[in-house]
């Protein structure tokens, strides 16, 4: 049986990339809900409708686990999904906890880049309230990075001016850790690292999510049976055109070349 990986678009591939490294003997259904992208600019109730449509589709395809490889979808719907489906469901949330733990002793701050919806949602606020006792965490929405990723535009000449513009109000030397709290953002990790002073740690929750999935499948004795094959869907339609498939393959290759990702 396949593992389903779900996102609004190509961002979930940053998680899929980690999962395939940890679990090479699995097959995957990758579902990008591009008809309703960007999730990060939409309210929770609207998102829930789209997310349930997508998960109904995936569950009908006999999957052994679902990875919600989207911080925004996780914050909007993970609890409701777990109530409604009996398969294991793994979500992703901004890696605020490890960031605060590693940054506090350095007397530095944490910058959390995510979507507007993630940063607005109660789930995020509860997380920060629980962990950020010394007011170290600053939020920053970065919607255009989602657009650039969806256009497969990784050209630093397009990405850097946007990053610089958004970061203008911040003193970058204050930050010890930058959290990439949207799965689209690790696609630009190498470029983001260039913008911050040397030594700033840029982290995301992709590997943690992959490890969580691995532990869950092992506990259920459900690992193996595949060879890394991926079938791609866009909002319920199988992706078969060679140009899009080539873009996906190139993106997975790009993720291989980004250090530490
Ligand atoms: N990749 C998604 C996330 O992790 C959101 C992108 C979007 O706005 O659709 O939050």
From TrEMBL:
Q: Which UniProt keywords apply?
A: Cell shape, Cell wall biogenesis/degradation, Isomerase, Peptidoglycan synthesis
Q: Which GO terms describe its biological process?
A: cell wall organization; peptidoglycan biosynthetic process; regulation of cell shape
User: Where does this protein act, in terms of pathway?
Assistant: Cell wall biogenesis; peptidoglycan biosynthesis
Which of the seven top EC classes does this enzyme belong to?
isomerase
PROSITE patterns, per database record? ASP_GLU_RACEMASE_1 (PS00923)
Catalytic activity, EC: 5.1.1.3
User: Per its UniProt record, what SUPFAM superfamilies does this chain match?
Assistant: Aspartate/glutamate racemase
Q: Which family does it belong to?
A: Belongs to the aspartate/glutamate racemases family.
Give a short account of what the protein does: Provides the (R)-glutamate required for cell wall biosynthesis.
Q: What is this protein called?
A: Glutamate racemase
| Native source organism of the sequence | Sporolactobacillus nakayamae
The major lineage groups are: Bacteria, Bacillati, Bacillota, Bacilli, Bacillales
The encoding gene is murI
